[in-house]
Amino acid sequence: MTQPSIDRVKSLIAAILAPQLTAAGVVTLTDDLDLRDEGVLDSLGFVELIIALEVQLGTHLDLADLDAEDLTRVGALARHIAGNGPAHAV
Length: 90
Prior knowledge:
Elements: H1 6-16, H2 18-23, H3 43-57, H4 74-84
Helix pairs in contact: 1-3, 1-4
């Protein structure tokens, strides 16, 4: 499996979270957008996002090396997922 691009990961995040982004009044998905701080996601929503990304990308996502404060920042999360590639097939 090839690594997804950062833009692909961001597009997936936007598509998966479209209803939540709209409800939170978020118009543009910027790199510095913190999904938790903006009220888009809570902890359960984050887990659901990761599961949906794993399904869409067909791989397990290993977030152990991502700093906790960056977990819910769109740019940092997308770069981490794109940069690490697949850990192993689901």
